[in-house]
Each structure stands twice: as structure tokens, then as C-alpha cells.
Amino acid sequence: MADMPQDAHPDAAKLAGLAHTEQYAYYMPENYAFRSEKGLTRRVVEQISYQKNEPEWMLKFRLRALEIAEKKGRPKWGPDLSHLNFDDIYFYIRPQEEKGTNSWDDVPAEVRETYRKLGIPEAEQRMLAGVGAQYESEMVYHNLKEEWEKQGVIFLDSDTGLQQYPELFKEHFATVVPPEDNYFAAVNSAVWSGGSFVYVPAGVEIDVPLQAYFLINAQSMGQFERTLIIAEPGSRFHYIEGCTAPTYNSDSFHSGVIEIIVKERANVRYSTIQNWSHNVYNLVTQRAIVQRHGSMGWLDGNLGSKVTMKYPSTYLMGEHAHGEVLSIAFATDGQHQDAGAKVIHAAPYTTSSVVSKSISKGTGRSSYRGLVQIHEGATNARSNVECDALLLDDQAKTDTYPYIEINEKTAHVGHEATVSKLNDEQIFYLQSRGLPADAAMALIVRGFLDPVAKELPLEYAVELNRLIELEMEGSVG
Amino acid sequence: MSEHSLEIRDLHARVADGEAILNGVNLVVPRGEVHALMGPNGSGKSTLAKVMAGDPQYEITGGDVLIDGESILALEPDERARAGLYLAFQYPVEVPGVSIANFLRLALNARREEGDEIGVMEFYARLQRAVKALDWDESIIERNLHEGFSGGEKKRSEILQLLVLEPSYAILDETDSGLDVDALKVVAKGVNAARGPEFGALVITHYQRLLNYIVPDKVHVMAAGRIVKEGSKELAMELDTRGYDWVRVEAGLNPVGDDEHAPRVGA
Questions:
Q1: pLDDT of residue A416
Q2: Cross-chain Cβ contact B78/A444 below 8 Å
Q3: Which of B98, B100, B142 has the most A C-beta neighbours within 10 Å, making it the best mutation to test the interface with A?
């Protein structure tokens, strides 16, 4: 079998596929208005830019990024990517759905079908779809949006953002993650489409999370989304990359770039829980730069996918800047979650905290890959890293690659790692209280993730629990 | 007698692929009664408790356990719980990140049909009653299950769960071990609060002390993996002063077993 890893059992792929047939057997026929040819070529990049009617500078940027990607080549470290074949991938598909939906009826039928197949009750489906209790109707959302607009907040999909605010866009775009940064950032830069464009003016504080679901449409949910978030001085808000319906996207490659600029005293939280189908390579670059007294928090949940490589990074550039990462990874059969965090302390009195929780099951493998770097002159910087791994059975694997580079004597850096195995005594105890074995396991897993989950708004915590239950299904013979 | 009782019939069990520990236990606890199970260390009391609850560490080699006349041995531990059995563990485990309130709500709902989940108000009322019965602070319900609990708090939690889950039959596995007198009284108060015509209990203890506060209807004495003597609550007093050797001798066993010692007098 040509597409199998060398060390895998010949039937492993088949078995893994079977195990997930039920859970992921809902690929819907795709409707699209335009589709590029397969593969990553100059012609495809030109087509994308043409289709989007972009300014000349963006086309040039894309082509330059393509060259960089070709020169760089793929990373030689980390998970096995040898089966990721670009020649089989459509790099741009523009579906037919109209933009700007926010009532239940407007949620694409495929998405609703997905929820139905997941067996989620309708009330919960609506909530998951972002049209539930909190955002009962289009009215509520429009009211919110109007209020935000009055305050000068921009919240658009990136394509529209580029069209409507070309200067603001150009000023910040690719300043945090330039195409030179890494191979997949270069690929994204060449073919990006969709994502969110968020601009919050100085001093504006938003209490209701900005949810990407508001923007749901073909543009925002793409495979190569490009999100650009600008927090002007003293602003404060929470952005949530919502909809985690597992992949009504049958494509096997997702590579997003998220750029966040946190200016002085601004406070930004970015939360995402992703649940890709088990055939997806999920290779994402998420990065924030934080100025003086600014604060950046990442909450990053990685479920699903075949391979995930994702290390939300925070560059603490000004004094007293603060960065925080809470990360969850769940690797089940055939999956490799290579996730973690990067924190760069480049100024005095900067502080950071990383909490990583990973779970591995069956042939799943989860790795924590983290970097804490303290630059010379970044006096009195403090950083604390905690990684906890939970193995659900004897077969599951976990590993930790904590890189710490300290070039400053006054730094305080702590690192703590634990590995635990799902405990038969705990399961028996919970069973003796009436919980079936699979529910007992799911409860233990949820408890393990609780320190992260409780940072999520309720509806997302509910959803996370539901996703974990799905992943746990069939765990008990 | 089997209509409303917890019945153990000629039960034999061993550690999976290991030595035999239970060698034909016979015992009946009618609903509405509280019985004590006493015996020296190593006599098989705790094993009996775990075997009844379905601990996979043990293998049953003969006999039966019945709840109200129905055998439960083919049931999973959770099915036994839902059939009305409750085990208060000697060493309750910690489950980090899971609050007592959340856990108990799930455990109660596991006993109910989907769509018939317990109401929030009803649940909290029940929980509060239980917390009060144990003279506990209400904040306890938001703490994670046994995380950072003292030995005494863990035991109290076992009784709290019993009061909330309202089983038909409870087995208390040395709930008194490691408790000071005050904690003992609180635990006993909780168990006595559960007493009633719809509740039967088997209180396993090494010492008579607990039985001053939970007065048993009947006392069973175990040695070498079977019941060797039964009697009224006075038997417990007698064991406390005389130790267990005489019972063993009566039953035709050596005075002191391989891995056991007579209890300290007056302990």
C-alpha cells in the first residue's frame, strides 16, 4: 500500500478508516462556483487572485510567497508528512452559498445534516451553530454588530476586509507571520482565502465574544484561512473561532495563518477548538505580538485530523507584556497531534504561562513541542510551563519536546511535566456509582481537561464535552 | 426471604489467577436492617465488598449474589449500582477536575431515562439535605472529587454520596478506619439518616467502636473467607473484649491465621 507509513501494520489504515466510518460518514456533495485545478502552481495562484479581484500588491505578495515556499521545502522535523501530496489537492474552491447568514434556516443544510448525524439535539445544534439562545435571531446579532460598528469595530471576513479597508489591511498584513517564516506559512500566503479580519479601536472593550461563526460562509471557513486581528491600545476582546462541526470539508489539507497584533495595554483572547476529520493534515501558524502591558491569551483545542502541527506563539515585545497558552490535544487511532506553544520574551518584566493537556488513545500519539526563549536584556522575565499527558491505554503514546533558551540571568523559568495513565481503579469507582464504563472514562478525561475547559464560554465547553464523548465512543469493549 | 434482601449464597472468589479468598460465604441482609460484618484482618471482608460491587480484580469461582432475588453477578459494576447496590470504599479514589456536584448529578441521571434527568432545583435540594446531615459546609460540593481530601473527608464523601444516590443496599467497607471519634459520629449520623424500611446495609468493621453509633440488627463474623459466627449486637462487644481467636477455634480454624492478628483490646 503506497500511502501507508512504513512502520504501520498493513491493515492499520483500513482499520482506522473503519473505526471512523460512522463518525465521519457524512461527506456531502460539494457545490462550488469555481474550482482551481489540482496542485500548487503559479497559474493556480494567479487564478485565485483574479477570482477575488484583488489589488496588484496582493497578487505580487502571493507569487513571492509561492517562490519562497518552493525554495524552502517542507520542514524536516516533526510528524510524518510524506503522504501529503499537493498534486491531489484543490487549493481554491469557491462554493456557491451566499455570504452573511445568521439564522438557523441559513445554516447550510450540510452543516445541519452533520449535526443531525452527530446526534446532537436541535436546541444544542442551534447553540453550536451560533444561532441559539445567545444569538436567538438575526436581530440580536445585527444589534450587536451595529453597536460594534458605532464604536469603530471592524469584523469581516478577510477577503471583504481587504476590499473594504485596503490600507489598514495592507499596513498589518503579514507583519506578524511573513511568508519567510515557515514553509506552511508561505503556502498559506500564496493561496490564502477567507479567515477573519478584526480591528478594534483604541480603548474599546467588547464583552460579548466575537465569534467567527457570525461570518460563516464559504469565505471564512476555508482551508487556507488568513485571520488578521488588530487590537489598538487599551482595547479588550475575546475572539472565538467557533464552529467545530467536524469537517464538512473533505479536503485533506488545512493550513491557516492567524496574525494578532496586541498593542499597548490591549487584552486579546483567541479561542479555537478544532475538530477535523481524520484524513486532514492540519498545519497552522498562529502568532501574536504583544506590546507594553499588553496581554494575549490563546486557548487552543485540537481534536480530529490525521496530523496536527500547531504551536500558538506569543512574542512579548514590550515591558510587562503577558502571554498565556492553554492547549488541549486529543489523539486517537492513527492520529498524531504535535501541538504546543512558543513564547518569546524580548522585553523586561514580561510574563508567560503555558498549560498543555494532551490525551492519547489507541495508536494515537500526542506530542508537546514548546519553546520558551528569553532574550538578553529581557530582565526579570518569568515563564511557567506545565504539560500533562494522559494515556488512555497501554498502546497510546506521548512525548514532550520542551525547548528552553535563556539568555538572561534574572529570568525565572519553570517547567513541569506529568504523564498519567487512565486508572482502572478510577473507572471501577465511577462505575460503582452507576456510570457506564465509557461515561466513566469520558468523565475522567473531562476532569483532566477541566482547567482548560473552564476558561471557555459555556456553549463551547458543552461542545468540547460532546466532542470528547464522540472521540471516546468505542473506547470500552 | 429473598424477596427484599441482599443475599450472598455460597460465594467463592479469588484474586484473578491467584489465591482463593472467599470460600463459601453465606449471608442475608433483609431490606430495612443494618448488619455488621466483623472479622480479623485478612479474613476476606474487603474482598467480599469489592466482589459484590463487581471489582474486575477478582474472579468468582462459585456461588451467587442476589438483590431482591435477582442474581447480579452477570452485571457490570455500573449495572449493579443502578440495580440498587452501593459500596462505600475503604480507599476512595481521587478524580481530578470533577466536582462532587457534577459527578453526583451524572450518577443520578445514569439511573434515569434520557429526557427524564433530575431537575436542577430538586438535585440541589437533595444535595443540600445530605450535606447538612453530615454537618458539612456547602462549599464541599464544588470541590473536585476527593482531590486534596483528608482521610476523614473522603469517608464523609462516601456517606454523602450514599445519601444522595439513595441505594437500596449499601456496603460500608471499613468506613470507620482512620477516623477520630468526632468524625466517626458524623459518619454514623449520616448512615443512621439513611436507615429506614427501604434501606439495608452491611457495615464492615474491624472494631466494635463504630457499632456504638450504628447499632446493628445482626452481627456476622468472618474468618478464612467464610462466615463463622452470627449473633446479635452483643457479639460485637464480646469480640471487642475477647478478640477473634475463640471464634476461629470454634470454627475449627487455627487460633491465629497466617497474616492476621487479634485486635487490640479496647481499640
A1: 93
A2: no
A3: B98
Contact residues on chain B for A437, CB-CB shorter than 8 A: 76, 78
pLDDT-derived band at A20, boundaries 50, 70, 90: very low
Which one-letter DSSP state was computed for residue B254? -
Domain of A431 in residue numbering reads as: 422-477
B92: amino acid identity, one letter? P
Contact criterion met (CB < 8 Å) for A429 and B81 = no
Residue with cell 497501554: A394
In a domain, A58, yes or no: yes
Residue B20 resides in a domain:
yes
pLDDT tens readout for residues A151-163: 999 988 898 899 9
Domain of residue B197 covers 5-97+168-250
| CATH code of the domain in which B172 resides | 3.40.50.300
Nearest Cα to Cα of residue B203 among B222, B183, B226: B222
Q: Using one digit for the tens of pLDDT, what is the confidence trace for B209-249? A: 899 999 999 999 999 999 999 999 999 999 988 888 898 88
Alpha-carbon torsion (B253, B254, B255, B257), positive or negative: negative
Cα–Cα nearest to A48, from A61, A35, A38: A35
Residue among A420, A369, A365 nearest A398 (CA)? A365
* Residue that terminates a domain, selected from A281, A310, A339: A310
**How many folded domains does chain A comprise?**
2
When mean pLDDT is compared across A31-40, A225-234, B98-107, the lowest value belongs to A31-40
**What pLDDT does residue A178 have?**
95
Residue A337 lies in a domain: no
φ, ψ of residue A107 in degrees (nearest 5): -65, 130
Q: Quick one: how many helices (H) and strands (E) in chain B?
A: 8, 10
Q: Assess if residue B258 is contained within a domain.
A: no
Q: What is the number of domains present in chain B?
A: 1
Stretch A268-275: mean pLDDT? 89
pLDDT band at residue A404 under the 50/70/90 scheme:
very high
**Residue B90 grid coordinates:** 475503604
A145 shares its domain with A293: yes
Judged by CB atoms closer than 8 Å, whether chains meet at B93 and A449 is answered as no
Do residues A12 and A4 make contact, with C-beta atoms less than 8 angstroms apart?
yes
- Could you give the count of Cα atoms lying within 13 Å of A332 in the half-sphere of its Cβ? 24
Domain annotation covers residue B266 = no
From CA B120, how far away is CA B126, in angstroms rounded?
10
* Interface touch B78/A437, C-beta < 8 Å: yes
Stretch (H or E) spanning A357: strand A351-360
